[in-house]
Amino acid sequence: MHKDVLIRLNQARQNRQPAVVVTDTDNGEQRIVDAPGIGTDSLSQIIAERLRTGKSGMLEDGHTFLMVHVPPPRLVVIGAVHISQALAPMARLAGFDMAVIDPRTAFATPERFPDMPLHADWPQDVLHNEPLDAYTALAALTHDPKIDDLPLLAAIKANCFYVGALGSRKTHAMRIERLRGQGACEDDLARIHAPIGFDIGAQSPAEIAVAVLAEIIAALRQSPAQKRAAA
Q: What is the rounded distance in angstroms from the CA atom of residue 35 to the CA atom of residue 208?
C-alpha cells in the first residue's frame, strides 16, 4: 500500500470514519476515498453500496479492486435494565461493541454487566468524552426523560445509523413534544424507532432484546430501497 494512502487510511480509522482504497490491478495505482470524498467520487454509488455491506472485492470491469474499511459497529444503550442485560451477549455475538450508560448506580453494576464497558454516569458526561457517530446505534431504554432525552438528541445530531427508544405510542408522543420543544425538527423526530424493535409480539426482556437487535441490524445492512419496501 502506498505510504500516503496508508497515512490517510490510519487517520480515518482513528476517527472512526469509513474509507475505501481503490486499486487499479493493471498498473498498481492506488487512491483512497475517505468520508469527505465519497459523495463526489466517480464510483460514489458503488462505494456507498460497498460501505453498507462492508465487503471488499473486484468490480465487474475486472481490474478495479475496492478494499473497504468501515469502523466496527457500536451499540450504545441508555439504561442498565433487564432488556440491556439480555441484549449484551446477543450484541456481542452479532459483532457489535456495546456499552451501557446509566447514572443509577443501583442498576449500573459490574455484576449485572460483566466484561463490557459500563458507565455509571449521566449520558451527557459520557458522550462528551466518547461521542456518537454514524456507525453507532443508540437505544434509550430507561423510560426516564431526564436520562433518555439528551442522548436521543445527541444521536440524531451525530447521524447515528439507528436511534430507538422504549415506550408505548402514548409515551413516545409525549417524548416527541419534549424533543420538538428542544429544537428537533420533524425529519429528525421521524428517525426515532419507537416503540423500539420489530413488532414480533415480544413479551419478555430477552424477546424484546431480539426485536431490538434485529431492527438495529436491518438499519445497518439494508439498502434505502429495502427499507422503503419493508415500511
A: 34
65, burial (CB in 10 Å: exposed 0-12, middle 13-18, buried 19+): middle
Number of neighbouring beta carbons within 10 Å of residue 97? 16
- Clarify whether residues 181 and 218 are in a common domain: yes
If one counts the domains in the chain, the total is 2
Q: How far apart are CA 18 and CA 22, in angstroms?
A: 13
Q: Does 230 have pLDDT greater than 70?
A: no
Residue 209 lies in a domain: yes
Over the stretch 68-121, which tens digit does the pLDDT of each residue have? 998 999 999 999 999 999 999 999 999 999 999 999 999 999 999 999 999 999
User: The domain containing residue 61 runs over which residues?
Assistant: 3-69
Q: How far apart are CA 140 and CA 83, in angstroms?
A: 11
Same domain? 49 vs 100: no
Is the separation of the CB atoms in 187 and 215 below 8 Å? no
Q: Which helix (H) or strand (E) holds 76?
A: strand 74-78
Residue 228: is its pLDDT beyond 70? no
Beta carbons within 8 Å of 44's beta carbon, 6+ residues apart: 38
Q: Are 79 and 170 part of one and the same domain? A: yes
93: part of which helix (H) or strand (E)?
A: helix 82-93
- For residues 91 and 196, state if they share a domain: yes
